[in-house]
Amino acid sequence: MPLNNEKPCGTEEPMSDSDTSRLSESTTTSSDNESPRESFTSDSSSKHASPSSSPPKPVTLDDMMATTRNLGNLMLAHEIVTNGNFQLNHIDPPQNSLEGRVKQIVHKAFWDCLESELNQDPPQYDYAIKLFDEIKEILLSFLTPGTNRLRTQICEVLDVDLIKQQAEHNAVDIPKLGSYIISIMAKLCAPIRDEDVKNLKATGDIVQMLRDVLHVLDLMKMDMVNYTIQNIRPQLQRQLVEYERGKFQDILAKTPDALNQTTEWINESFRDAMQKQSDGSSSGANGVSMDNLSPTLVLNSGYLKLLQVDYQNAVPETLITDDLRIQELRHKLQQVKIVASVCLVTQNAMGSYCTSSFTDHIKEISAILLQGMNNRALNLRETLNALSVKICYEMNKSLTERGLPTLSSEAQTNLQGQICSITEKDHPIYSLIEKRTQEYLSTFLCLPYPYKRVPLLPGGLTTVQKELEFVAFHFASIVNFNKQVYGPFYANIFRKLLFSETPGKTTETVSS
């Protein structure tokens, strides 16, 4: 753990108000002009750097709507930058759902009306004119500012007033207009839509042709949105820290209790840190003071709590944008710890007969069977039971191939029992692996960015080195960015904690 006296990674001297800048010892920066170790309370922060201290006021419906919009924009911007594969997809509601049935009924009614108008004698073009006007606006939205000639051409050919005049004289050539629209779509579409545009036909069933055109245009609109996302990602990446901090400040101004869960999360880390110091102090110690705690280590301890499988508290508001990523890393880390424990149990059972190649084989089998740790349908106990049987079989097979005696029935029963109970409380090997994993991750969080080296792996974790470094690197990236964005808010909470009169009343003091 970060506050373990055996593996200190930072000083723990008494703090004054000005010392809260130490909270940023392990933060990173997304701007070329910012220092990787920039203080949470640095003057180079934006004008939104300090949380508002205005008195609370009643939250209105407009405030709630504004908060929802700000949170949606914040999460969207964060996802665009942090997820390089992020894109929007066109999703149709299931046909048997209420939304799907309503959509199907409304669309069918519209196309039936259009077909009915065109089949009249003489044909009526009210709905068709509305469609051509909509198609014109969609095509114009695809154009860049420099394509004035094509813009003018589209406006002339799909001029609604001209089409209305033609309709009055029954001179509208819909197939010709459809052919022109398809030719423009072929020029503007992404390569992935070439085949879809080629399949469009401007002859035959006019209504079906227009339906197909609008369907492909919907796909092209989504392509344009994703193209725009790719273009703005580098610029947004340079400004994301200030943008997220400003948006969260707006949320806090509208919703004064928007830091309640975060405050409780930090309070809990403080209490745990004080308890550890109290347990580790000598019998002659006078007591434990919060002034002796390093806020950076306390905050790191809080981050690490989020990776614990049994962590049931609500996610802090400041980490809601990374909640799903943290959940994925939590399940990945649990899988890594179980695989490491299984390999260690197997090595102990085989003793000197265990080879590195056999350990890798056991690791591969374990990783396959333990896939989908985040799936609630996975019965971990049954999976471990199946894994223990498979390992006993592979072990006896390996020993037989090398002409060595196989495991006795008693040894196999003992091995299976150790593997099946591996996640139970106080399991000696799993507890050891979990403790060393926490120490490794705690040390990783203390490293300055960019990482010039990674911490040495504790014993027993060499088998899962690659997987553990993957979890550590991605989690450290989340933590460092989170400290950059929300450092001023954390610093404000820490000030209230550090200078509260009675440590025993920490929660009440900070929450008020």
What does this structure look like?
With 512 residues, the chain is mainly alpha-helical. Among the domains are: 59-255, no CATH class; 325-480, no CATH class. It is built from 17 helices and no strands. α6 (174-188) packs across α8 (206-254) and α9 (260-280) crosses α10 (295-305). The longest helix is centred in the middle third of the chain and has 49 residues, at 206-254. The radius of gyration is 31 Å and the shape is elongated. Residues 1-53, 282-288 and 501-512 have low confidence and may be disordered.
Number of H- or I-type helical stretches? 17
How much is the average pLDDT?
Answer: 80
Strand-residue proportion: under 5%
Number of strands: 0
Note the run of SSEs as H and E.
Answer: HHHHHHHHHHHHHHHHH
Structural class by SSE content: mainly alpha
Which overall shape is indicated by the principal axes computed on the Cα atoms?
elongated
**Can you summarize the main beta sheet?**
none
Radius of gyration: 31 Å
Percent in helix: 55-70%
Span of the ends, CA to CA: 30 Å
- Give start-end ranges of low-pLDDT stretches: 1-53, 282-288, 501-512
